[in-house]
Structures are given as structure tokens and as C-alpha cells.
């Protein structure tokens, strides 16, 4: 996690000093307030707020980081420190549809290699990559609690389980046609 | 996928097949929140703790620590606020029971948390859910809103002199945050590194205050304990392991699923071959990892005809552990070298990097596994792997290091052939085929 920066959250090469703070709509600000109200200490809301920033801005970008530091009353480095620890926090843009295929044991023995191969073949990318049009990313991830319905992938937050290679094809077509939610919430 | 009880009346899974199981009406019609009412109106906090002690309930998060005893450690006279935290981080490969408990019966968890909060004098509680389970957070948030509207969460619950809040919280993809002290750091908005113990969370946990961290399945057992009494709950299981236990079954069986079994279920062979309807594709059983990825692997020869009882004591006798109950079944086509490589990659990815033996050790182990997989194995590599494990096990800051070493140690011991094949010059490994 922390020592090895995963493709999702590499440490930015030049620690960017953000000039502007991100701004959000009143609805999003109200949502942020609801999270802050849960805790006696503001900093506790750091992960819930990071999810909101990356939903609104595509990823945790430098203005988003500056916003969080300001909102939570911590330093910019405190935000980076936490962001780089957690796999689900994206410090770089990802595709609109992020296919996260589980590669852990139960999925592996129930057909994950074929699922990954098919998805990569269809999209022309390797795990860890994003298509040039920015529509798809593929990642191999660790157990997602669907071992009994393996093999599986998550697209955004949505589970797609008991997968066959044919279903992978269908999912990708539905993404291309805009018929499938990208599961980002 | 199957969800249900075998060998006992369903307790934790009693309502999962009802229509609209997530709604508070369904839950209340089935007797829900009556245990909370009983506790609030007829029992003192001490009496609640005493019943949980009598129930012989052991923590279902992996360590199996007696729940009543843990609750007893919380200092009564502390002027600080006290916290109850539900551990819904469920990230152990092979485990998915907590997911279905929350998906199918969210109010059972809320009721268990409220009873725990009453027993421990807590007014604020959190459900720390792994970030990938966002849909479960949404289910729990809806259940919390329903319960609040019904006067079951908030001020003066059910009219009694007890007020309590339940909040959901999302992790963001880190297995280590299932370890209770790392979880508390994460909940405080820090990196999820474990803390030094002692002090234990019961004394100094969240924000330095007395805190009880319990697994979802532990907390969902509490309403039934209060309803039927601790002694009756204990009798469903064995003397030292009371009640029933959920097993998440995955891999090469005809009927994977979440199975509720009485503690001490007899025996593992029957469970696999009859209850789970045997090995898929008419193949032979090769190995089982019975308690999630962190426990010792069991070869079929330690299961077939061996009368392995499924409880904490029985699995230790059989050479493994209950752990989180993530029961992974592997058939004869699985190469245990490959399956072990898969798990050590998991531990390397999830090592939090805090202490050297685990951070460097898991990285090194993966490098050796990958070299062997490339066909460059050497006969002395088995010993090298064991030496590396020896330098991690017992020498790491938290149990994740041990959990990384155990699968390798047991795999090399129980399946030497699968390793030898990759390590000998006559092997049909990559290098030899060229
Ligand atoms: C690396 C590691 C990961 C863990 N993951 C979980 C988990 O996902 N869920 C859980 O309930 N307990 C997990 N635990 C166990 C917790 O530390 C703790 O013992 C448990 O939450 C206590 O609850 P219980 O007494 O109800 O079992 C983990 C422990 C370790 C060392
Ligand atoms: S054993 Fe591993 S996970 Fe635990 S503190 Fe050390 S590096 Fe972190
Ligand atoms: S191993 Fe893939 S979901 Fe658990």
C-alpha cells in the first residue's frame, strides 16, 4: 500500500503547489457538511470527502487537494499522505468506465484469467492502462467479497458477478452505447 | 449461490429469504428490535454483558476473542465518551458473509450495535465499511434513516433513558484497515497503520477513548443472545464456542454460498461432499483453506475420513483455524505453488509498509515466487522461502505479517510435490521447455 505506489495512486512527480481551491455546488457542499457532522474531529471525514472530490472532479486533483486541506484545517501534505495510502483514491485520471477485475484466489481458480484476457483484448489495453479516448480503464484488484459468485469485476461501485467471457463482451458494448451506469457515486 | 442454515435452525440467516428483507417493517414483523426493547426495559448494562459472557460468543472477525470478556474490559468509570465500532471492512480473501448479513438484514446489525452501545454506555457508534461495499453503505444509511424515524436511533430510544447515534463510514481500499487499530487510525483520518498494543482499544481506542471494535457477524449475534438468553445460545454450539457460525464457501464446489452451521458441526467431509454438493466437474478434492486466506491450507487427506469438527478447537486439532470462515475449496487441477503465489501477491499489495519484516519480506517473497514461476527455480528455494517466512512470522508489528507467512509455510509442508515440480532441474517448468 504505502511503500509501493499502485497504478491508481502514484505519488505526483512534482508535488504540485495548488494555486486555486476547487469549488462545489451548494448541494455538494451540503453533502460535505453531512459527513463532517458525523465526527467530533473534522479530519475523520477525509476519506468520505475524497470520494466526493473525485466523483465531482474525475480524480483527486491538486485544487481538490487544496480544497480538502482548507476544509479540514490540515496541511496539503496531510492530504497527500492519506491519499497515497488508499487504493481507491485516484490521484490520476481514470477512464469513465473503470473495470476492476478481481484477481485473488477464488476468482483466479474460477476463470479470472479468461475474463481479464477478454476484456483487455476487446479494449486493446493492458491492466493498469486507459484507452486513448479515456472511456475505459482496466485494473486487476484484490478480493472484493464476491468469491462465491466468482469470477467478478466492479465497474465503479457496481458489482458484476458470475461472469462469462460473453458477458464481458456484452458489458463493454453496453458501456460503449452509454447503456450502463459507470457506477460512480 | 446458496444462503441458508444446515444442521440447525437459521438464526443469523433467519430473515434473509423474506420478501423485502431490508425494510424495518419486515424486521419488526419477524420479532426485530424486541431484543433491544427487552434489554432497555428489563436489563441493566451489566446484565447484558453477563448474558453475552454466558453465550460463549467468540469474535467472528478472525481472532475468535470472547466477546463478553472484551466488553468487560471497557472501564466503567471513565469520564471519556465511549465508542462502539462495527468492523465491516471484510477484505480477507474468501470471506463474504458480512456482505450478505448487511445486504439482507441491515436492521439486525443496527439492533446488535444498539444493544452493545447500551451495555457499554456508548452514545456514538460507527460502521466502518470497506470502500468497495458502497451499495451496502447505502443500504445501511437507508436502514438508519428508517430506524431514526421509528424512534429506534437518536434520543430516548424506544422511550427509554438511552440515546445513541449510528453513523456509516467508508474505507478506501486497504485490507489492513480491517485490523482494529489500523481501522481506528483510518477512522481518525490517518493512514491505516496499526497501533502499538497495549493500550488496547477497550481502554484507549477511537480519539483515545474506550472503544469496542466488533465484527458484523459478532454484533448480529447479539439480538438472539438477548432474546433467547446466553445459556440457550451457547448450547447451539459447543462449550467454548457458542452458537452458530457463518461460512463463506467459494471455489470448486457445486453449491458455493453462505452457510450457517452450528459450532462444532460434524464433519468437514460431509459439509463439502453433501451440503456443498461435492466438487464441481466430477473432479477430486485437493485442498481447502477453511478460514480465509490467512490460515493454514489443508490437504484432502487431512479431511477425508478424518472427522474434522468445524469449530475453533476442531480446526486447530485438524491443523488449521476458523479465522473469518472463508472456506476456499480447490480441486485436483490447482497447483498449490500457483495458489500460494496468488496469496503472497495479495499480502505484498496489502502490507501497510509500517514495519520492515513485513514490508521487505513480502516483497522479497513475491520476487522469489516470480523468479520460480519464470522457470528459474532452484532446489534450495523451498528453504529460502521458509527462511524468509521465519523472518516475518512473530517479528512483525501486526498479525498481517504472520498471516502472510502461514499460507506459505503450510503449503510447502503439505504440498512439497507442487513446489518440487517447480524447483528441480527435471521439472517441466518454463526453462526446461525451451
Ligand atoms: C490484517 C488483519 C485484517 C483484519 N481484517 C478484519 C476484517 O476485515 N473484519 C473484521 O471483523 N476483523 C478483521 N480483523 C480482526 C480485527 O483486528 C479485530 O480482531 C476484530 O474486528 C474484532 O472483532 P471481533 O472480536 O468481533 O472478531 C483483521 C485483523 C488483521 C490482523
Ligand atoms: S506487519 Fe505488515 S501490515 Fe502489519 S504493521 Fe507491519 S508492515 Fe504493516
Ligand atoms: S477472490 Fe475475487 S471476490 Fe474474493
Give a description of the structure.
The complex is a heterodimer of chains A (about 180) and B (about 425). In chain A, about 40% of the residues lie in helices and about 10% in strands. A 4-stranded mixed beta sheet of chain A has the order 2-1-3-4, with helices on one face. Chain A has helices at about 25-35, 45-55, 60-70, 75-85, 105-110, 110-125, 165-175; strands spanning about 95-100, 135-140, 155, 160. With about 180 residues, chain A is an alpha+beta fold. Chain A is elongated. Chain A has 7 helices and 4 strands. Chain A has 2 domains: about 1-90, Orthogonal Bundle (Arc Repressor Mutant, subunit A), CATH 1.10.10.1590; about 95-175, Glutaredoxin (3-Layer(aba) Sandwich), CATH 3.40.30.10. Chain B has a 6-stranded mixed beta sheet with strand order 1-7-6-12-9-10, with helices on one face. A 4-stranded parallel beta sheet of chain B has the order 4-3-2-5, sandwiched between helices. The longest helix of chain B is centred in the C-terminal third of the chain and has 21 residues, at about 355-375. In chain B, strand 9 and strand 10 (about 300) form a beta hairpin. Chain B is built from 18 helices and 12 strands. With about 425 residues, chain B is α/β, with parallel strands linked by helices. At the A-B interface, helix 2 and helix 5 of A face helix 7, strand 4, strand 6, strand 12 and helix 13 of B. Flavin mononucleotide binds near residues 62, 178, 398 and 400 of chain B.
SSE string of chain A, helix = H, strand = E? HHHHEHHEEEH
Number of strands of chain A: 4
Structural class of the helices, strands and pairings of chain B? Answer: alpha/beta
Order of helices and strands of chain B: EHHHHEHHEHEHEHHEEEHEEEHEHHHHHH
Which cofactor or ligand species appear? flavin mononucleotide, iron/sulfur cluster, FE2/S2 (inorganic) cluster
Distance between the termini of chain B: 43 Å
Arrangement of strands in the largest sheet of chain B? 1-7-6-12-9-10
**Relevant CATH superfamily of the largest domain in chain A:** NADH-quinone oxidoreductase subunit E
**Number of continuous helical runs of chain A:** 7
Sheet having the most strands of chain B: 6 strands, mixed
**Silhouette of chain B:** globular
Whole-angstrom Rg of chain B: 22 Å
List the total number of helices of chain B.
18
Strand content of chain B: 5-15%
User: What is the subunit organization of this protein?
Assistant: heterodimer
Q: Can you tell me the CATH architecture of the largest domain in chain A?
A: Orthogonal Bundle
Q: What shape does the CA trace of chain A take? A: elongated
The largest pleated sheet of chain A is described as: 4 strands, mixed
- Average pLDDT, all residues of chain A: 92
Q: Average pLDDT across residues of chain B?
A: 96
Number of beta-strand segments of chain B: 12
Amino acid at each position: 500500500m504505502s511503500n509501493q505506489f499502485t497504478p491508481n495512486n502514484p505519488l505526483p512527480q512534482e508535488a504540485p503547489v495548488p494555486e486555486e481551491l476547487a469549488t462545489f455546488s451548494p448541494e455538494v457542499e451540503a453533502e460535505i457538511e453531512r459527513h463532517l457532522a458525523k465526527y467530533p474531529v473534522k479530519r475523520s471525514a477525509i476519506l468520505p470527502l475524497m470520494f466526493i472530490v473525485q466523483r465531482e472532479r474525475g480524480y483527486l486533483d491538486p485544487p481538490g487537494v487544496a480544497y480538502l486541506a482548507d476544509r479540514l484545517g490540515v496541511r496539503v501534505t496531510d492530504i497527500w499522505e492519506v491519499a497515497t495510502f488508499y487504493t481507491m483514491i485516484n490521484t490520476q485520471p481514470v477512464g469513465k468506465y473503470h473495470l476492476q477485475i478481481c484477481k485473488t484466489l477464488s476468482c483466479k481458480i474460477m476463470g479470472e484469467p479468461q475474463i481479464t484476457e477478454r476484456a483487455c483484448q476487446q479494449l486493446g489495453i493492458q491492466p493498469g492502462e486507459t484507452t486513448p479516448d479515456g472511456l475505459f480503464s482496466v485494473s486487476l484488484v484484490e478480493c472484493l467479497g464476491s468469491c462465491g459468485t466468482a469470477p467478478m469485476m466492479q465497474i465503479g461501485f457496481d458489482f458484476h458477478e458470475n461472469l462469462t467471457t460473453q458477458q464481458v463482451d456484452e458489458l463493454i458494448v453496453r458501456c460503449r452505447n452509454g447503456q450502463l451506469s459507470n457506477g460512480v457515486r | 449461490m446458496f444462503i441458508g442454515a444446515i444442521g440447525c435452525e437459521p438464526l443469523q440467516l433467519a430473515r434473509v429469504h423474506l420478501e423485502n428483507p431490508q425494510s424495518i417493517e419486515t424486521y419488526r414483523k419477524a420479532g426485530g428490535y424486541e431484543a433491544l426493547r427487552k434489554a432497555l426495559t428489563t436489563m441493566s448494562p451489566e446484565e447484558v454483558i453477563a448474558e453475552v459472557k454466558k453465550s460463549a460468543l467468540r469474535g467472528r472477525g478472525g481472532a475468535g476473542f470472547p466477546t463478553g470478556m472484551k466488553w468487560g474490559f471497557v472501564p466503567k468509570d471513565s469520564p471519556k465518551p465511549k465508542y462502539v465500532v462495527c468492523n465491516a471492512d471484510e477484505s480477507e480473501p474468501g470471506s463474504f458473509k458480512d456482505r450478505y448479513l448487511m445486504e439482507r438484514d441491515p436492521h439486525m446489525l443496527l439492533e446488535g450495535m444498539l444493544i452493545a452501545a447500551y451495555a457499554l454506555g456508548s452514545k456514538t457508534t460507527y460502521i466502518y465499511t470497506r470502500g468497495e461495499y458502497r451499495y451496502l453503505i447505502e443500504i445501511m444509511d437507508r436502514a438508519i434513516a428508517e430506524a431514526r424515524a421509528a424512534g429506534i436511533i437518536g434520543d430516548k430510544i424506544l422511550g427509554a433513558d438511552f440515546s445513541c447515534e449510528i453513523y456509516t463510514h467508508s474505507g478506501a481500499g486497504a485490507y489492513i484497515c480491517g485490523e482494529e487499530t489500523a481501522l481506528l487510525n483510518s477512522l481518525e483520518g490517518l493512514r491505516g497503520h496499526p497501533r502499538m498494543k497495549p493500550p488496547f482499544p477497550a481502554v484507549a481506542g477511537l480519539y483515545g477513548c474506550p472503544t469496542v471494535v466488533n465484527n458484523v457477524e459478532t454484533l448480529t449475534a447479539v439480538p438472539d443472545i438477548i432474546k433467547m438468553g446466553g445459556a440457550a445460545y451457547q448450547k447451539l454450539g459447543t462449550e467454548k464456542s457458542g452458537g452458530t457460525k457463518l461460512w463463506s464457501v467459494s471455489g470448486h464446489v457445486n453449491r458455493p454460498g453462505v452457510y450457517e452451521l452450528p459450532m462444532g458441526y460434524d464433519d468437514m467431509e460431509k459439509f463439502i461432499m453433501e451440503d456443498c454438493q461435492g466438487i464441481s466437474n466430477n473432479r477430486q478434492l485437493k485442498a481447502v483453506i477453511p478460514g480465509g486466506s490467512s490460515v493454514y491450507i489443508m490437504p484432502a487427506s487431512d479431511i477425508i475420513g478424518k472427522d474434522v469438527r468445524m469449530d475453533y478447537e476442531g480446526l486447530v486439532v485438524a491443523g488449521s483455524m476458523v479465522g473469518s470462515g472463508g472456506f476456499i475449496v480447490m480441486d485436483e487441477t490447482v497447483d498449490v505453488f500457483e495458489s500460494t503465489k496468488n496469496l503472497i501477491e495479495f499480502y505484498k499489495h496489502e502490507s501497510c509498509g509500517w514495519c520492515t519484516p513485513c514490508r521487505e519480506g513480502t516483497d522479497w517473497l513475491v520476487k522469489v515466487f516470480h523468479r520460480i514461476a519464470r522457470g528459474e527455480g532452484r532446489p534450495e528455494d523451498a528453504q529460502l522461502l521458509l527462511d524468509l517466512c521465519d523472518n516475518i512470522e512473530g517479528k512483525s508489528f501486526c498479525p498481517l505479517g504472520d498471516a502472510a507467512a502461514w499460507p506459505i509455510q503450510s503449503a510447502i509442508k503439505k504440498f512439497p510435490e507442487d513446489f518440487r515440480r517447480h524447483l528441480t532441474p527435471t521439472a517441466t517448468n518454463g526453462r526446461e521447455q525451451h
